[in-house]
Design goal:
membrane, elongated, transmembrane helix, transmembrane, mainly alpha, 6 helices, 130 residues
Length: 130
């Protein structure tokens, strides 16, 4: 359980990212099936990253979570600018609350990952601020 104490904030962010996308899966599968499946993969990736954060391989968790979060930020930006194949309905829709919350969570996880991955392992294990 020591890893939960060390990486609880990262776990909370991953749970939030997964939850925000989970809520939209039925709509995405109905509208654009491949986006729904990408949401499902995102959730599975968040679960895997979270599991790694609970282990001694926590760096893998931050790496995978950063990849997922960064990819989600890029995909969100594409859907709001040029659109994706068969998904052009959200072009210009920057003010959607769920999208903004997701972006905040994803950006926070990327920032946390950069900080955690730059710290020496001993500093993370002995520090009171995790």
């Amino acid at each position: 359980m020591k890893h939960v104490q060390n990486h609880w904030f990262g776990l909370l962010l991953l749970i939030g990212i997964g939850w925000m996308h989970f809520r939209d899966i039925p709509d995405k599968l109905g509208e654009t099936a491949y986006l729904g499946w990408l949401y499902i993969l995102l959730m599975a990736g968040c679960a895997a990253a979270g599991a790694w954060l609970l282990s001694s391989h926590w760096k893998n968790g931050y790496g995978l979570g950063m990849l997922i979060s960064g990819g989600a930020i890029i995909a969100y930006t594409l859907t709001r600018t040029v659109g994706l194949p068969n998904a052009r309905g959200d072009i210009g829709n920057w003010a959607e609350p769920a999208g903004i919350i997701s972006l905040i969570l994803e950006a926070a996880f990327v920032a946390l990952s950069v900080v955690q991955l730059r710290r020496p392992v001993r500093a993370v294990q002995s520090s009171g601020i995790r």
